Amino acid sequence: xxxxxxxxxxxxxxxxxxxxxxxxxxxxxxxxxxxxxxxxxxxxxxxxxxxxxxxxxxxxxxxxxxxxxxxxxxxxxxxxxxxxxxxxxxxxxxxxxxxxxxxxxxxxxxxxxxxxxxxxxxxxxxxxxxxxxxxxxxxxxxxxxxxxxxxxxxxxxxxxxxxxxxxxxxxxxxxxxxxxxxxxxxxxxxxxxxxxxxxxxxxxxxxxxxxxxxxxxxxxxxxxxxxxxxxxxxxxxxxxxxxxxxxxxxxxxxxxxxxxxxxxxxxxxxxxxxxxxxxxxxxxxxxxxxxxxxxxxxxxxxxxxxxx
Amino acid sequence: xxxxxxxxxxxxxxxxxxxxxxxxxxxxxxxxxxxxxxxxxxxxxxxxxxxxxxxxxxxxxxxxxxxxxxxxxxxxxxxxxxxxxxxxxxxxxxxxxxxxxxxxxxxxxxxxxxxxxxxxxxxxxxxxxxxxxxxxxxxxxxxxxxxxxxxxxxxxxxxxxxxxxxxxxxxxxxxxxxxxxxxxxxxxxxxxxxxxxxxxxxxxxxxxxxxxxxxxxxxxxxxxxxxxxxxxxxxxxxxxxxxxxxxxxxxxxxxxxxxxxxxxxxxxxxxxxxxxxxxxxxxxxxxxxxxxxxxxxxxxxxxxxxxxxxxxxxxxxxxxxxxxxxxxxxxxxxxxxxxxxxxxxxxxxxxxxxxxx
Lengths: 308, 357
Prior knowledge:
The structure holds two protein chains of two kinds. By secondary structure, chain A is mostly helical. Chain A is about 75% helix and about 0% strand. Chain A has a single domain, classed as ABC transporter involved in vitamin B12 uptake, BtuC, CATH 1.10.3470. Chain B is α/β, with parallel strands linked by helices. In chain B, strand 5, helix 5 (about 150-155) and strand 6 form a beta-alpha-beta unit. In chain B, helix 7 (about 185-205) packs parallel to helix 12 (about 320-330) and helix 12 (about 320-330) packs antiparallel against helix 13 (about 335-350). The interface between A and B is medium-sized, with 33 and 36 residues.
C-alpha cells in the first residue's frame, strides 16, 4: 500500500522531479500538493472505504455477492449525478447531487423494507432491487432528454468512474465523511458480526436487529456515497476486497475488516495509476478495477466448486 | 433576400422566354413583302432548346448505398441538424416537411428559417419516429448513418433515403455534393463550397509565416475533455494558425485528460467549445490552473454559439477558423475583417445579418 501510494505520488502526466521539488519550484509544489497528492489520498482512502463498506454489506446481508448496489446506492448516485449534470452547473454541484441521489435511494429502500414488519434481510434486498430499477428508469429518462454532444457524454463518463478531476479543492468534505464513517464501522465491528448471525439468534443475544442494521447500513451507505459522488461509479472494489480479505485472514473479524480496507485501497490506487499511465489520455478507472476484479471473481467461483 | 433572388430569377426566366418569343417569330415567318405569306420551311425551324433533365440521378451516400432519385424531390425530411442547416443554405427549407427533434434549441433555425421550428419532429438518432416520418409522405429522407436500421422500412414504403455522416471536412463536402445532386441544387452548393475554399486560401495567405501559438480546445462536456489530431476541431486550429496541444492524441472522439496533462501542455490559449456547459469565468477562476499561461494571460475564450457551433462539421465550419484566427492573430485578421466575412456568409446563404442578431 505504501509503495503504491509513493508510486502514485510520482506517476502522472506532469513531469514532477524530486530535484525541482527540493529546489522549491512553486509550480512543482502546487501540482504535487493540489493534484497529485489529493489523487493519491482519494485512491487510498476511497478504495479503503469501498472495501470496508463492501464487507459490511456482505456480512449484514449474509450474501457474498452483496455490494452497495444491492440497496440501490450506485444507481441512486448515477441518477443524482445525471440530474446534476442536466440541471445544475459545476463539478461540486454534480458531487452534491450524486451524494443526495445515493442517500435518497437508500432511505427509500429502507423505508420500503420497513413496510414489512418481519424485518427480514430478504425484504431489504427486494426493496433495494425495486429502488435500483426505479433509479435506473430515472437515469434512462434523464439520458433520453440529455444533449448527446454535451450532457450525455458527461453522464456516460461519470458512470464509468475516474479520478481525473480530483484536486485538493474538491475532496475535503467527502474525505472527512469517509474517515468518520470507517471509524464508526470499525467501532461497530462486533455488532456487524452479530448481524450476520440468524435473526432469532441475534435477538437472543440482546441485539436490536432492526435499528442496528439500519444504523450500520446507513453509515456504510454514507461512506460509499461520499466516494462515488466524487469519483463516479467504481466497479468491483467493494465486492473483491472483502473476498480477498476473508481468504487471507480466515476467521479474524477485525483483521478481515482492516485487510478489506487495505485491499480496497491497493486496488483503487493501483487501478488509478494504470488509468492515468497506460494511454495518452485518461481511461475510466473502472476498466482496470474490473480487469483486475473479474478474473479474481472467476477464480473464487472455480475454487468454491473444487472445494465442493 | 432569398425571396427577392427567387423573384428576380422568375423575372429573368420570363424575360428570357419573352426574348425567345421575339427571336422565334421572325424565324417562323418570313415578313410579307409581296402581300403573300410564305410557309416556314423545315430548315428555318430551330431545334427546341430543352435542357437535359437532371433526373433520374444516382447518388452514393455515406453508407456506400447507391440511391436512384427518379424525380426532383418536393417533400424533404431531415433527421440530422447538420443536413437541416445545409438544406437551409441550399434554399430548400420550404421543401422540408419534417425535421429532427429539439429544433427549437437550434439558434440557426430561429434566425434563418423560423418556420422549421413548427415542423413535425421525426425524433432523434436515439429515438427515431419511423411511423411519424412515413406519415409525412416525404420524397426524400436524409438521416444520420446511425439510423441505417430505418432505411429498409422507409424504402419499402417507396421513400428514398440518404444516410450521411459528416464527421470531418471531407465527409461534409461529400455530403454537400450528395444532397445537392439529389435535390438539383448544384449551383448553390458550388457557391457554398467556394466560400469555404476562398476563406481557406485567405487564411493560408494571411497567416503565412506568422507565429503559431499553442491552443487547448476544451470540449462541451467538461474542461478536461479535448479533441485530438484526428478530429475536425484540430483542423480548425491548424487553419487558424495555431497548434493543437493535444495533437499527439489519435482518438477519433473527445477524450478525457487530467489537470496535470493540461498544465504539462501549458497552452497559450484555452478555447472552450461553443456549447460548453461551463464558462470562461469558471476556467479563469479554477485554482487548479493558476499557473497555466493561458489563464495567467487571460487568453481563455469561448467559440460563439449565437447561430451554430462552428467547432462541429457544419457547412459554416470555416467561420470557426476565421473567428479563431482573429483571436490568435488579431494583428493580422482584425475584428472588422472577421465580422464582415461572417456577415457575408450568413447574408448570402441564410438570409440574415449575423452582427445584427
